[in-house]
Automatic annotation (TrEMBL):
GO terms assigned for molecular function: protein transmembrane transporter activity
Similarity comment: family membership: Belongs to the TatA/E family.
Function: Part of the twin-arginine translocation (Tat) system that transports large folded proteins containing a characteristic twin-arginine motif in their signal peptide across membranes. TatA could form the protein-conducting channel of the Tat system.
Membrane topology of the entry: Single-pass membrane protein
Swiss-Prot/TrEMBL keywords: Cell membrane, Membrane, Protein transport, Translocation, Transmembrane, Transmembrane helix, Transport
Protein name in UniProt: Sec-independent protein translocase protein TatA
Subunit structure: The Tat system comprises two distinct complexes: a TatABC complex, containing multiple copies of TatA, TatB and TatC subunits, and a separate TatA complex, containing only TatA subunits. Substrates initially bind to the TatABC complex, which probably triggers association of the separate TatA complex to form the active translocon.
Gene Ontology BP annotations: protein transport by the Tat complex
Organism: Methyloceanibacter superfactus
Principal location: membrane
GO cellular component, one term: TAT protein transport complex
Region annotation (Disordered) ranges: 39-82
Segments of skewed composition (Basic and acidic residues): 52-63
Length: 82
C-alpha cells in the first residue's frame, strides 16, 4: 500500500509552508537554467568531437641489405684455470 492522496497533499502543504511560494519558484527557475546550460554544453561538445586526423609515423629501415651480414658481438673469453 503506497501513500494515499491525503498523505501526499499534506506533505505538499507542509513543503509550501516551510519554503514559501517565492523560494519554490526561484528554485524551479534555477533548475530550468541548469538544464538549458547542460543542453547547450552537450550541443557544443558534439561539434568539437570530429574525428582527428591520424598521425603518420615514418619508420627507418632496420633490415640489412642483401649480401651483408649483421654485426656480431664478440663472446667473452673463458679464463683457463690452473
Amino acid at each position: 500500500m503506497g501513500p494515499s492522496w491525503w498523505q501526499i497533499l499534506i506533505v505538499l502543504v507542509l513543503f509550501v509552508l516551510l519554503f514559501g511560494r517565492g523560494k519554490i519558484s526561484d528554485l524551479m527557475g534555477d533548475v530550468a537554467k541548469g538544464i538549458k546550460s547542460f543542453k547547450t554544453g552537450m550541443a557544443d561538445d558534439g561539434d568539437d568531437a570530429a574525428e582527428p586526423e591520424p598521425k603518420v609515423i615514418e619508420h627507418e629501415r632496420t633490415t640489412p641489405k642483401a649480401g651483408k651480414s649483421p654485426p656480431r658481438a664478440k663472446a667473452p673469453r673463458k679464463q683457463k684455470s690452473g
